[in-house]
């Protein structure tokens, strides 16, 4: 029972740390006003990497051994652990899915940054791709995500227009 108690203490420390990571990931992002759409992709790539690392750690043999010992001891901490494990898996899947969808827009980011306002021929294809993401993505089709993405696309267009005016 002493070993189980120590292992429960370790699990509770992990639970607190993981909850902190999950809470931080759900907080509103503070970003500069002039960020372009490539920053959205970078944000989700970073988030995917973080959650995948966390998942790898949770699925490590060391953690699995501790969990199996606590299961054998019928520990009460496992309910919280399983809930957090599920939440981390959801967050990792969301980030992975969002990266996959945002990569479909990546081909537009370079031309959009360099385009003159007269030659915005990429905009219809870009908007069609954004529409496809909105219609098919299980995670990215929220008003919050779409607003963030469209704001960054608009920022990129405004920056391209400013550069065009300053050069002309």
Write structural notes for this entry.
By secondary structure, the chain is mainly α. The protein has one domain. 80% of the residues lie in helices and 0% in strands. The protein is built from six helices and no strands. The mean pLDDT is 88. This is DYH8 protein.
> What is the domain total for the residues?
1
**Basic shape:** elongated
What is the string of helix and strand elements?
HHHHHH
Helix content range: over 70%
Spatial extent as radius of gyration: 22 Å
Percent strand:
under 5%
Provide the residue-averaged pLDDT. 88
Structural class based on helices, strands and sheet pairing: mainly alpha
Sheet of most strands: none
Identify low-pLDDT runs.
none
Tally of individual helices: 6
In total, the number of strands is 0
Distance between the termini: 77 Å
Domain Dynein heavy chain tail: 4-166
Pfam family, one: DHC_N1
Protein name: DYH8 protein
GO molecular function: dynein intermediate chain binding; dynein light intermediate chain binding
List the helices and strands and how they pair.
Blueprint: H1 2-26, H2 38-58, H3 61-72, H4 77-114, H5 123-136, H6 143-167
Helix pairs in contact: 1-4, 2-4, 4-5, 4-6
GO molecular function, one term: dynein intermediate chain binding
Pfam families: DHC_N1
InterPro entries: DHC, Dynein_heavy_tail
